[in-house]
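Table S2 (continued). Query chain:
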Amino acid sequence: MTSIRRISLGWLIAAGALAILLLFPPVLGRAQLALPTEVCIFGIFALTYDLIFGYVGLISFGHAIFVGFGSYALSSALTDHGVAFWPALLIVLIAGIAISTLSGVIALRTRGVYFAMVTLAFAQAAFTLAESDVGGLTHGDNGVSINGAPDWLVGPTSQTHFYYVALAALVASFLLLRLFVRSPAGRVWQAIRENERRARMVGYRPFAFKLLAYVISGTVATLAGALYALYVGAVSPPVFSADTTIQLLLMVIIGGAGSLWGAVLGAAIVRYLNHYLGVLSTSDLVANLPSWLHQTIGQPLLIFGVIYLLLIYFFPQGIAGLAQRLDFGRTLVPRPGLGQVEVEAVAPTPGNEPIG
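Corresponding output:
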């Protein structure tokens, strides 16, 4: 009964948070929706990164390749080739599946730091190709503006519509990835994260399951990249930079690796800190401080670094880890690990046989 109440409380908090988010447009006004919209989009990016990092144990330094690929795929389809909006999104989906499968097949042949370096190499290669405008596809450093999207989504008075679209995309991505991580495949992902060798010994093929997670993560991130391109209105080579991936890693660590809601919360914390620390650095309050203090507080990255160190020191497992230690929001079924996967491998049930 207690566990059921906890589940109900968790869903009640989620419903309350969603209700508050739905009220943002009438409460804040259209002029104040830019940052919440950005948080929704980066929340999707953080969810996809948490899938491979928090649930499978893969640390990637090149996740930005999916963000950039989705952005450029949409801009090329809409602006350069005049494709209609919905077919263009279908093209982005197909392209996301293709690029994540191809890069995953290559990168997942390596492990640990070598996997991280290979993914970084992919992103750096994509950045170089985009900057060089190979084949006239990316327009080089100047980038390309997004044209051809419907006015209700990107028109001069479409801020409210776009916010709701971004929020709906965030909720849909959360529910989709939650479905995957709670599936039999999700249990195997967590077993691989804990001990890949033991998962292989009980009959599972880690490469196939890691590739599945990588493709799901990359495809959703590619679609979110297209949404990001619509939000910004243009796309340029820096979208492939390592800074994009590092931000996603920070979001997941601050929110709590292996927690989907933690990843979204981490995205909100990082984006709001980036915004308001930038505002603080240029405010009159800081400008009137003594020179040595102004040079210190006037550096947003320095202040963010200090805040990040404090968060990691006091909350080493992130915000979600703190909630777990406080026994808040525990689910009815504990997170499965190798023990449960081993039982399933020894005594498989119909429709849930291990791949081996």
